[in-house]
Amino acid sequence: MKRTLITTLSFFFVTLGFAVDPQPQFKLAEPWSPHPKTTPITSSEGDAFTVKANGTRVSTGGWHWNYEGIVPGQTYELSLDAAHEGLAEPRDELRCIAIWGKAEASKERFVAIWDFLMPEAAGDKAMRFTRKLVAPEGVHQLTLRSTLRWSADGKAAWQQPKVSLAKTPLLARAPVKVCVVTGVQSQRLGLKIKSIQDNIDFYGKLIEKACERDHPQLVLLPEVALQFGVAGDALDTAVPAPGPETDAFAAIAKKHQMRIALGMYERNGDAVHNSVVLISPAGKIEGRYRKVHLAGGGEDCSGILPGDGFPVFATDVARIGCNICMDSSVAESSRMVGLNGADLLLLPIMGDHRADRWTLGPPNFNEDRWRVIMRAHAIDNQLCMIVARNSTVGSCIISPKGDLLAWNDGDQEFIAASVPLDEDHRIWQGGSFRDMNWMQRRPQLYAPETEVKNQGNSK
Question: What is the pLDDT of residues 15-25, one digit of tens each?
Answer without folding.
Answer: 444 445 579 99
